[in-house]
Amino acid sequence: MINKTVQSLAEAVKDIHDGATVMISGFGEAGSPIELIHALIDQGAKDLTVVSNNTGSGNVGLAALIEQRRVKKMICSFPRTTNSTVFPELYTAGEIELELVPQGTLAERIRAGGAGIPAFYTPASVNTPLAEGKECRLFEGIEYVMEKGIKADFSLVKCELADRYGNLTYHATARNFGPIMCTAAKTSIVQVRKIVEAGAIDPEIVVTPGIFVNHIIEVSHPANESDLVAQKFTYPW
């Protein structure tokens, strides 16, 4: 019987190894897997390359992982956020690397990685520093930059509903990066607000089929990232 449910957050992240590339979903708290990230902090993996839309908020979630010096490189679109100075301070000090990617290009690079597409051309970043060292070509008189697909060893994703097979639905903006990160990772680890009985999710509304999911863990009352940041909450790691 297929059952991708694990019993604890620690079990969910136990195989993430030093030096791994980890995609972390987000686009706001709807998609930020805070509990999985803090389980990863407890687990201790280091020298990680993290692919995410931004670098986290306050001192929780991804920002906490970065603050603990577990991340050697960020691949993201928004390295500076209004409510966190963690990444900018470490980057200025030369303690973390950055690969800056326009948001639409980042999403497409992840989607391409999951679809087995090694590279594609986009007009974004033409004639900017982000195009330096990359192949450029003209198509119908318009210049394009070649961007490579991104794949990862693991993805940490937050979703709304799942069944034991790993079929997923999402809430709000969690759908922006969660589904493509599941397809682009060798191992997809998903925290879900509620695990329902097999067959309870209408196949017509499944967003991520279970074939792209390896482990699911129910977190019925996930932390509210914006509330934690507003309270200036700091996890004890």
From TrEMBL:
Alphabetized GO MF terms: CoA-transferase activity
Enumerate the UniProt keywords alphabetically: Transferase
Q: Which InterPro entries match?
A: 3-oxoacid_CoA-transf_A, CoA_trans_fam_I, NagB/RpiA_transferase-like
KW Transferase (keyword) present:
yes
Gene3D superfamilies in the cross-refs: Glutaconate Coenzyme A-transferase
- Tell me any Pfam family this protein matches: CoA_trans
Query: Which protein is depicted?
Result: 3-oxoadipate CoA-transferase
Q: Which organism is it from?
A: Marinifilum breve
